[in-house]
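Why predict the complex rather than its parts? Because the way molecules touch one another can change local conformation, and only a joint prediction can capture that. The input here totals 136 residues.
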Amino acid sequence: MSQATYTVQGMTCGHCVSSVTEEVEQIEGVRAVDVDLATGKVTVTSDRDLDVDEVRAAVTEAGYQLAS
Amino acid sequence: MSQATYTVQGMTCGHCVSSVTEEVEQIEGVRAVDVDLATGKVTVTSDRDLDVDEVRAAVTEAGYQLAS
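Output of the joint prediction:
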């Protein structure tokens, strides 16, 4: 099991959290997504190491930005 | 046709706008709902005069507050 934390910019409410969670959950191998709205920290637990570009694509698809 | 403008507190993003719009549109007689996210102003066009309590209930149902 692998775990990594990313920072997402632009989330302002619970709907934003849901959108990001839903998109990131769709990445193959992802088992859990935990979002802290106040800090923008998104912790992803997965059964393989994720490529940051996969996470970035999911976050972009949700309408937000991964902090560089 | 009747038109009135209300101020809604707590909307922070387009999802919030959608939530409020959807709930207010469900009030009987409502024909159009226009939300300005920056100001929180919600303009409602309806084919009858609305009771402010109906609007307040819809906004609350969406998870936001009507400014008093």
